[in-house]
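Try it yourself: sequence plus 2-oxoglutaric acid, in.
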Amino acid sequence: MPNETQEIPVIHFERFLNGTSAERKSVADQMRRASQDWGFFYLSGCGMPDEQLEAAFSGSKAFFALPQKDKQGVAWQNPESNRGYVGIKREKLDPTRPGDLKEAFNLAPEGPGPDTHKNLWPAGYPRFETVMTRFLGECILTADRVLQAFALALGQPEDFFKNAHNEHDHTLRLLHYPPLPEGFEPEDGESRAGAHTDYGSITLLFQDDVGGLEVCTRSGEWIRATPIPGTVVVNTGDLMHRWTNHVFCSTPHRVNVAPEHRHRDRYSIAFFCHPNKTSEIACIESCATADNPAIYGPISAGQHLNEKLTNTYGAQAQN
Ligand SMILES: O=C(O)CCC(=O)C(=O)O
Ligand SMILES: [Fe+2]
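Structure, out:
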C-alpha cells in the first residue's frame, strides 16, 4: 500500500517489447503490482514514435488556438457520438463541483458504414485530420501492446484483452487547460479537471511538462503525478476494476489549479480504451480466491457502460 514515502512506479516497457519471456513476465508482474497498489503507473518506452507524439501535441495546440467560432462549428453533440469540441466549463468531471477549467476535442475510430458516427473536423485544416487520424492509429497499437502485458499479468492468454478490444471502441481526447488570469482565485473546489475515475478498461495519458495531475492513493491522500519525459501514464478504469474483481484499482484523479503552474497553458492527450460492446466482462479467474470470491456476475461491456452513463448522465460523462 502506498504511503507518502512511495512514488507512482515507473515501468520500463522496452523489456516487455524486446525481452526474453522471463523479462516480459517480470514487466507484467510489475504492472500487476502497480495496478493493485495504485491503479496508476508511468510506462517508459511504450513504442509510440516520438515524432507522432510531437505532431499530435502541435496539432492540438493549433486546434485550440483556432477562433472560438471554428471550434464551436464542431461542437460535441451527444454521448452516443461523443466526438467534437467541448468548451471551457462545459464539463464537470466531478459533478458536485464547478465546471472544469479546460476545453477538449474528442475523436474516435470510425466504423465503415454510412450509419456509424463520424468524426467532426474543423473545415479548412486537413493537416489536423491527417495528423490526428495517424496518431489515433498509433494509440490503438500502443494500447494493444499494453493490453497484452495486462493479460500476461493476470495469467490469461496474451491476446485475451486485445481480442476483447478489437472493435476499437476507444476515444482519443485532446485537452487544453488555459492559463488562469493574474489574481484568479478558484471558486470553492474549482479545478482544471474535477476528481473522477475513468470508465473504461485502461487509459493512456500523455502529458506535457506543466504538471497538475494528482492521484488519490488507497489511503485517501492526493499525491502529484509529476510529468516524466518519455513516459506515458497508464491507469486502470472502472471496467478493469470490475473485470479484476476489484484487484486492480480504479483510482480517483484530478488536475489541480496549483499556484506554480496556473499561469501556463497545459496540454494533455488521453486515450480511453473500451472493450467491444459485446465483450463479456466476467471475473478473471486469477482474481477470485476463497477470501475474495467473485463479486459480480458477467455483464457485457456495453451494458456496463450504459449503467455508468445512466448513473452519471447529469455529469455528461464523456470518456
Ligand atoms: O489532463 C490530465 O492530465 C487528466 C485528464 C483526465 O483524467 C481525463 O480526461 O479523464
Ligand atoms: Fe481521467
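One thing you can check immediately is this: The chain is about 30% helix and 20% strand.
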